[in-house]
């Protein structure tokens, strides 16, 4: 029968499409149902479009500072429409690449909204309506931006990360509610394009969860670049009369910021409503679907992966979960391990972390030894004119085990992979220290920080 599958995946994001491809590679007959566009949030409204905007804004900055490197450029300007068009063309190419790979591996893409009728039946409405019979299900429906109940937030001047990516004109002044990863990345884009940016954050520091030395250093860097930052501040309302005003309170004092647009970046909500969970007896917790380490829900044969599980809301985690869930569906027992998950923040300089922060390691009772190295003492960073930042390697003093690494440096997001592998292989800091790193590269800061753990750092000023 045409509509009968071994596995049906609901949602074609980095969790769902990766699970579908792997399950097909393992010999299963697979369908993946996608309501909007293959690639999900990550490709269409998240990781890729934001990094394209960031890259364009960095190129603009580099061109403007060309003279520092001996390059004479004329009057440097940017064309916002072309920046958006460049982003759209990258997204389009990658999307067709994903569709090609899914089909090449023999899985079927069904365009529509999936609704679970029972654990073996899915009703699809929308473009390709049909009833699917399936042995197993993977729920990979992802998440969407949250909107808090703040008066005035329904104004057309208030955007979320989805709608901001479709802007036609660049705002001259942007107020961002939320100093988490998404808010700070958008602040970096518009600040690099020379626009006024104000961030309003409820907590007493931006980027909660990031090592405090790293977050306080990036805060100083953002302030130096002209970004206005209000911490410990609560937004009360958005007023849109003649002008758009964000009304907020800092230490009980009411303040107002006028702007062209407001971006709400206060977190994301799981897409677990309206997909028929009640028909199979699945009750989400605060909207998130509970899974065991095989990614199976409390209903045998029904799995969930990615943002909708709320484990770690990152694309590479969704994909890793997709691979494990697909293997389990195919009868190959595999378990998910979250002990080595890198986290990247695309500020300028970039932030990349893996493992425990120094504070977390101490709290967990470890006897901690930390190695540090400043980016300002690294030759390649000096050549690049990007000397802000530092690296911290957090180790267990007794065993030399690497407990965590926290980098604020150019190319940090590429360099963190070395420390992920080191932690995965249970390398000691001595082994990092004895590994010859290429010169001149920014990656030398990793070796230098490892030397610093041993108290024998050659280049530390
Ligand atoms: P999603 O990518 O959300 O995909 C779910 C898909 O399911 C969607 O396409 C949706 O249309 C579809 N769907 C939902 N319900 C149904 C239904 N009933 N039927 C059919 N289809 C359905 N992560 C990183 O790792 N690195 C980054 O740099 C990064 N940057 C980000 C920047 C922004 C602005 C945002 C918003 C997120 C970013 N993320 C980043 C997070 C990342 O995008 C998500 O963690 C990731 O996309 C989650 O993947 P997923 O497969 O679980 O869900």
Automatic annotation (TrEMBL):
GO terms for cellular component: cytoplasm. The active site is at residue 439. NAD(+) binds at residues 178-185, 201, 267. Residues 5-322 form the FAD/NAD(P)-binding domain. Signal peptide: none annotated. It comes from the Bacteria. One of its GO terms (biological process) is 2-oxoglutarate metabolic process. The keyword Glycoprotein does not apply. InterPro entries: Class-I_Pyr_Nuc-Dis_Oxidored, FAD/NAD-bd_sf, FAD/NAD-binding_dom, FAD/NAD-linked_Rdtase_dimer_sf, Lipoamide_DH, Pyr_nuc-diS_OxRdtase, Pyr_nucl-diS_OxRdtase_dimer, Pyr_OxRdtase_I_AS. The keyword Flavoprotein applies. Residues 341-450 form the Pyridine nucleotide-disulphide oxidoreductase dimerisation domain. Pfam families: Pyr_redox_2, Pyr_redox_dim. Its EC number is 1.8.1.4. GO terms for molecular function: dihydrolipoyl dehydrogenase (NADH) activity; flavin adenine dinucleotide binding. Belongs to the class-I pyridine nucleotide-disulfide oxidoreductase family. The active site is a redox-active disulfide bond. This is Dihydrolipoyl dehydrogenase. It comes from Desulfosporosinus metallidurans.
């Amino acid at each position: 029968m045409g509509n009968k599958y071994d596995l049906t995946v609901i949602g074609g994001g980095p969790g769902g499409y990766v699970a579908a491809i792997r399950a097909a590679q393992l010999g299963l007959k697979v369908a993946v149902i996608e309501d909007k566009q293959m690639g999900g949030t990550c490709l269409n409204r998240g990781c890729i479009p934001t990094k394209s905007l960031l890259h364009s804004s960095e190129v603009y900055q580099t061109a403007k500072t060309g003279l520092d490197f001996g390059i004479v450029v004329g009057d440097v300007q940017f064309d916002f429409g072309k920046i958006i068009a460049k982003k759209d063309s990258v997204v389009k190419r990658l999307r067709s690449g994903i569709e090609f790979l899914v089909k090449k591996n023999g899985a079927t893409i069904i365009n529509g909204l999936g609704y679970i009728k029972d654990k073996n039946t899915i009703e699809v409405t929308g473009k390709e309506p049909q009833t699917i019979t399936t042995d197993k299900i993977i729920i990979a429906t992802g998440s969407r931006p949250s909107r808090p109940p703040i008066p005035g937030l329904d104004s057309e001047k208030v955007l979320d990360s989805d709608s901001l990516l479709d802007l036609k004109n660049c705002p001259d002044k942007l107020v961002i509610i939320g100093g988490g990863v998404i808010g700070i990345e958008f602040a970096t884009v518009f600040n690099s394009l020379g626009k006024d940016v104000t961030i309003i954050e409820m907590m007493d520091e931006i980027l909660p969860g990031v090592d405090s030395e790293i977050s306080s250093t990036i805060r100083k860097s953002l302030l130096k670049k002209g970004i206005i930052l209000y911490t410990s501040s609560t937004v009360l309302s958005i007023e849109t009369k003649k002008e758009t005003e964000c009304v907020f309170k800092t230490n009980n004092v009411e303040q107002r910021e006028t702007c062209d647009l407001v971006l709400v970046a206060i977190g994301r909500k799981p897409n677990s409503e309206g997909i028929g969970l009640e028909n199979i007896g699945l009750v989400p917790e605060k909207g998130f679907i509970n899974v065991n380490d095989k990614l199976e829900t409390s209903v045998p044969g029904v799995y969930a992966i990615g943002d909708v599980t709320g484990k770690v809301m990152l694309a590479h985690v969704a994909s890793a979960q997709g691979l494990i869930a697909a293997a389990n569906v195919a009868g190959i027992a595999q378990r998910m391990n979250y002990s080595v998950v890198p986290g990247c923040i695309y500020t300028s300089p970039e932030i990349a972390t893996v493992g425990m922060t120094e504070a977390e390691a101490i709290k967990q009772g470890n006897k901690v030894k930390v190695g540090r190295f400043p980016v300002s003492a690294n030759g390649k960073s000096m050549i690049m004119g990007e000397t802000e930042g530092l690296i911290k390697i957090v180790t267990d003093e007794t065993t030399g085990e690497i407990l965590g690494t926290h980098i604020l440096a150019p190319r940090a997001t590429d360099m963190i992979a070395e420390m992920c592998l080191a932690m995965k292989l249970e390398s000691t800091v001595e082994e990092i220290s004895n590994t010859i790193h290429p010169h001149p590269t920014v990656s030398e800061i990793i070796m230098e920080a490892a030397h610093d753990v041993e108290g024998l750092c050659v280049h530390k000023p």
